Amino acid sequence: MPDSPLSASPYEVLGVASDADDATLRLAYRRALRSAHPDTGGDVVRFHAVQLAWELVGTPDARALFDRGARGGAPAPSREAWAPAAPKPRRDSRPLARTYGHPGGLSRERYLGLIREWAGRGVTVADPYDPALVRSAPRDIRHVLADALAEEASARALSTLGIAYTVWHDVATDAAGHGLPPKLDHLVLGPTGLFAIQSEDWGGPVAMKRGELVGAALDGERPMRALAARAKAIGRAAKVKPTALVIVVPDEHAEESLELGGTNRGAVVALVRRSRLSSAVREGLPGSAHLGGTEVMEVRSRLQVVVRFA
Fold it and tell me: Lowest CB count within 10 Å: 44, 168, 185, 200, which one?
């Protein structure tokens, strides 16, 4: 079970409430194991998830540890894993990409507002990143926090691109008028092109189909279409054209490290695993136009004039 706010708890995997008694928990485990067993037509991934869930809450001692915020005696997703990370001193002197904006800032602001609203008026939320509080929140609130973490992880990867690249985070866009989030997560410019990038965590696998993402976790979303609208709004304002539209997801949510989906208004469309992001940008996407030095400087100048931060 990955340490994501959207990861199902052992109780959710077994289909019981977190305060279920031991007999109910045991019965739910047996039923879940039987229905998920590969020999009876079940799914091997779910079968392993059920087994892991039982390891975490199947005995009184293990359950007590989990309910206190520990998993099987090992550290659980701690508040430090989900709270804003403190800046770390650099250990090398390699030049980093030039970066602007606050990655994940708007998503964290939204999360803090939503979690306090959900807790209720007059209720003091001492620690909005307490794992027990996060696990108990509705999925849409946990999704906002998961997206903030995804944006921050991508920003760390993009910072390693080198001085030839410029990165803008949380870029405001008027595409919000169509019911879309009011920003583009990352805009990256360098010799391998102009990349419009969204960092996402839907809590489940997604795949590319006819230029759009599909998957049960999307719940009807059309994320590539939304990304194209955001990129178009920024490109129109700066009179530039993105060369690539990229959606980044946790490694375990994509079957391939890089999956292409054709083009959208001349921009190559791709689904990329998080661990592959920096190399995909540095190498350039297959079929995506590269930019000459003079062209990079001209595009950067135009973007610097129009870029606003959400």
Answer: 44
